[in-house]
Design goal:
By secondary structure, the protein is of the alpha+beta class. 34% of the residues lie in helices and 34% in strands. The chain is built from five helices and seven strands. A hairpin with a 2-residue loop joins strand 3 (65-73) and strand 4.
Amino acid sequence: MGVITLRPALAGDINTIAQIWHVAWHEAHAEIVSPELVKLRAFESFHPRIETDLSNITVGELNGVLSGFVTVRGDELHQLFVAAEARGTGLARALVQAAEEQISSAGHDRAWLDCAVGNDPAAGFYRSCGWEYVRTHLEQVETQNGPFGVDCWVFEKALIA
Protein backbone atom coordinates (compact mmCIF):
# COMPACT_ATOMS: atom_id res chain seq x y z
CA MET A 1 0.00 0.00 0.00
CA GLY A 2 2.08 2.93 1.20
CA VAL A 3 1.56 6.40 2.58
CA ILE A 4 -0.99 8.47 0.67
CA THR A 5 -0.87 12.26 0.83
CA LEU A 6 -3.30 14.58 -0.95
CA ARG A 7 -2.64 18.27 -1.62
CA PRO A 8 -3.55 21.05 -4.04
CA ALA A 9 -1.62 20.97 -7.31
CA LEU A 10 1.21 23.45 -7.76
CA ALA A 11 2.66 24.97 -10.93
CA GLY A 12 5.74 22.79 -10.45
CA ASP A 13 3.52 19.68 -10.75
CA ILE A 14 2.25 20.43 -14.26
CA ASN A 15 4.77 18.29 -16.16
CA THR A 16 4.36 15.30 -13.84
CA ILE A 17 0.56 15.56 -14.01
CA ALA A 18 0.82 15.72 -17.82
CA GLN A 19 3.01 12.60 -17.88
CA ILE A 20 0.58 10.64 -15.67
CA TRP A 21 -2.44 11.86 -17.63
CA HIS A 22 -0.93 11.19 -21.05
CA VAL A 23 0.15 7.63 -20.25
CA ALA A 24 -2.96 6.67 -18.28
CA TRP A 25 -5.33 8.27 -20.81
CA HIS A 26 -3.77 6.27 -23.66
CA GLU A 27 -3.84 3.06 -21.60
CA ALA A 28 -7.55 3.52 -20.90
CA HIS A 29 -8.78 5.07 -24.15
CA ALA A 30 -6.57 4.22 -27.14
CA GLU A 31 -8.61 1.12 -28.02
CA ILE A 32 -12.08 2.55 -27.35
CA VAL A 33 -12.15 6.04 -28.90
CA SER A 34 -11.65 7.36 -32.40
CA PRO A 35 -8.08 7.09 -33.79
CA GLU A 36 -8.40 10.79 -34.63
CA LEU A 37 -8.89 11.64 -30.94
CA VAL A 38 -5.97 9.40 -29.98
CA LYS A 39 -3.74 11.43 -32.35
CA LEU A 40 -4.98 14.67 -30.77
CA ARG A 41 -3.99 13.44 -27.32
CA ALA A 42 -0.25 14.04 -27.79
CA PHE A 43 1.77 14.73 -24.64
CA GLU A 44 1.88 18.49 -25.29
CA SER A 45 -1.92 18.67 -25.52
CA PHE A 46 -2.30 18.01 -21.80
CA HIS A 47 -0.29 21.01 -20.55
CA PRO A 48 -2.76 23.80 -21.48
CA ARG A 49 -5.65 21.87 -19.95
CA ILE A 50 -3.74 21.39 -16.70
CA GLU A 51 -2.69 25.05 -16.59
CA THR A 52 -6.32 26.13 -17.04
CA ASP A 53 -7.58 23.84 -14.27
CA LEU A 54 -4.59 23.99 -11.90
CA SER A 55 -6.58 25.54 -9.04
CA ASN A 56 -9.18 22.74 -9.39
CA ILE A 57 -6.67 19.87 -9.23
CA THR A 58 -5.82 17.79 -6.20
CA VAL A 59 -2.75 15.60 -6.53
CA GLY A 60 -2.09 12.37 -4.74
CA GLU A 61 1.34 11.29 -3.63
CA LEU A 62 2.21 7.71 -2.82
CA ASN A 63 5.22 7.47 -0.55
CA GLY A 64 6.13 11.05 -1.48
CA VAL A 65 5.88 10.52 -5.26
CA LEU A 66 3.17 12.34 -7.22
CA SER A 67 1.21 9.40 -8.63
CA GLY A 68 -2.27 10.64 -9.49
CA PHE A 69 -4.68 13.54 -9.64
CA VAL A 70 -8.33 14.51 -9.69
CA THR A 71 -9.91 17.62 -11.22
CA VAL A 72 -13.21 19.05 -10.01
CA ARG A 73 -15.31 21.51 -11.99
CA GLY A 74 -18.38 22.64 -10.06
CA ASP A 75 -20.40 19.51 -9.31
CA GLU A 76 -18.38 17.37 -11.76
CA LEU A 77 -15.54 15.00 -11.03
CA HIS A 78 -13.93 16.04 -14.31
CA GLN A 79 -10.71 14.01 -14.54
CA LEU A 80 -9.20 11.18 -12.50
CA PHE A 81 -5.97 9.45 -13.46
CA VAL A 82 -3.48 7.40 -11.49
CA ALA A 83 -0.10 6.07 -12.60
CA ALA A 84 0.01 2.31 -13.20
CA GLU A 85 2.38 1.69 -10.30
CA ALA A 86 -0.08 3.33 -7.87
CA ARG A 87 -3.18 1.40 -8.95
CA GLY A 88 -4.59 -0.88 -6.29
CA THR A 89 -3.00 1.13 -3.48
CA GLY A 90 -6.09 3.11 -2.47
CA LEU A 91 -4.83 6.31 -4.06
CA ALA A 92 -7.61 6.52 -6.66
CA ARG A 93 -10.25 5.92 -3.99
CA ALA A 94 -8.70 8.64 -1.80
CA LEU A 95 -8.75 11.07 -4.75
CA VAL A 96 -12.42 10.28 -5.47
CA GLN A 97 -13.29 10.86 -1.81
CA ALA A 98 -11.42 14.18 -1.87
CA ALA A 99 -13.35 15.22 -4.99
CA GLU A 100 -16.67 14.25 -3.39
CA GLU A 101 -15.81 16.30 -0.28
CA GLN A 102 -14.82 19.29 -2.43
CA ILE A 103 -18.05 19.11 -4.41
CA SER A 104 -20.15 18.72 -1.26
CA SER A 105 -18.31 21.59 0.48
CA ALA A 106 -19.19 23.80 -2.49
CA GLY A 107 -22.88 23.20 -1.69
CA HIS A 108 -23.75 20.45 -4.16
CA ASP A 109 -25.76 17.45 -2.96
CA ARG A 110 -25.05 15.40 -6.12
CA ALA A 111 -21.92 14.87 -8.16
CA TRP A 112 -21.53 13.54 -11.68
CA LEU A 113 -18.79 12.32 -14.00
CA ASP A 114 -18.29 11.12 -17.55
CA CYS A 115 -16.66 7.80 -18.37
CA ALA A 116 -15.90 6.88 -21.98
CA VAL A 117 -18.17 4.12 -23.23
CA GLY A 118 -16.09 0.93 -23.21
CA ASN A 119 -13.86 1.94 -20.31
CA ASP A 120 -15.17 -0.98 -18.24
CA PRO A 121 -12.38 -0.94 -15.61
CA ALA A 122 -13.10 2.71 -14.76
CA ALA A 123 -16.87 2.12 -14.75
CA GLY A 124 -16.41 -0.80 -12.36
CA PHE A 125 -14.19 1.31 -10.12
CA TYR A 126 -16.74 4.15 -9.97
CA ARG A 127 -19.51 1.66 -9.14
CA SER A 128 -17.34 0.28 -6.32
CA CYS A 129 -17.11 3.86 -4.97
CA GLY A 130 -20.91 4.13 -4.86
CA TRP A 131 -21.48 5.95 -8.17
CA GLU A 132 -24.50 4.93 -10.28
CA TYR A 133 -24.82 4.84 -14.06
CA VAL A 134 -27.66 7.17 -15.15
CA ARG A 135 -27.41 7.58 -18.94
CA THR A 136 -25.19 7.67 -22.02
CA HIS A 137 -24.56 10.88 -23.92
CA LEU A 138 -22.27 12.45 -26.49
CA GLU A 139 -19.73 14.57 -24.59
CA GLN A 140 -17.81 17.28 -26.41
CA VAL A 141 -14.27 16.86 -25.05
CA GLU A 142 -11.67 19.58 -25.31
CA THR A 143 -8.92 19.29 -27.92
CA GLN A 144 -6.48 21.75 -29.48
CA ASN A 145 -8.64 21.54 -32.64
CA GLY A 146 -11.87 22.33 -30.79
CA PRO A 147 -14.57 20.09 -29.31
CA PHE A 148 -14.56 16.40 -30.23
CA GLY A 149 -17.54 14.11 -29.62
CA VAL A 150 -17.05 11.04 -27.41
CA ASP A 151 -19.81 8.67 -26.29
CA CYS A 152 -19.76 8.67 -22.50
CA TRP A 153 -21.54 6.96 -19.66
CA VAL A 154 -22.71 9.44 -17.04
CA PHE A 155 -22.41 8.38 -13.41
CA GLU A 156 -23.90 10.25 -10.46
CA LYS A 157 -23.61 10.03 -6.71
CA ALA A 158 -25.69 11.57 -3.94
CA LEU A 159 -23.41 13.34 -1.49
CA ILE A 160 -23.85 13.68 2.23
CA ALA A 161 -23.64 17.30 3.41
